Amino acid sequence: MIENTLTTAEFERGPKGEAQLILNDGGESKSVHERASAVKPARAVVALTHAQFDGYVGRYALAPEVYLEVTREGDKFFAQVTGFRKLAMLPMSDTAFFSNEVDAEVRFSKDASGKTEQLVLRQEGQDMPAKRVN
After folding, report:
1. Residue 39 has what DSSP assignment?
2. CA–CA separation, 7 and 134 (whole Å)
3. N or C terminus: fewer CB in 10 A for the chain?
């Protein structure tokens, strides 16, 4: 169980013997995540100002009581999912970031006024949209 949530995480073997992570939000929603390939795609890091990144800082709802928290500490950018460790994020464009620690990407989208309204977390081939809550 992920602390302070109804979400549980279990590891199981898939039909071909591969390791899978099963996330259950305590209700009817369940997601299956397969182990990421050992080969990570090559990604180039681009320059981003603090002001550009600060527009993304906030909390985004992935599921009931599960959030992706986006923060900046000095020159470093971070993302942290409720109950998991904080991961460094590297910019690959002005709206997309990746982690070298896990196979994950975060892409932000803005409304017509330029305010960040949501993100999509892409991990292990699955897209998980998240609306900004603050």
Report:
1. S
2. 22
3. C
Residue among 132, 129, 47 nearest 94 (CA):
47
Torsion angles phi and psi, residue 53, rounded to 5? -70, -40
What's the pTM? 0.69
Structure tokens at 13: 């073997």
Structure-block tokens of residue 69: 């928290």
Strand ranges, E, within the chain: 8-13, 19-24, 30-34, 58-63, 66-73, 76-81, 87-91, 96-99, 104-110, 116-123, 126-132
Residue 20: half-sphere exposure toward Cβ, Cα within 13 Å:
15
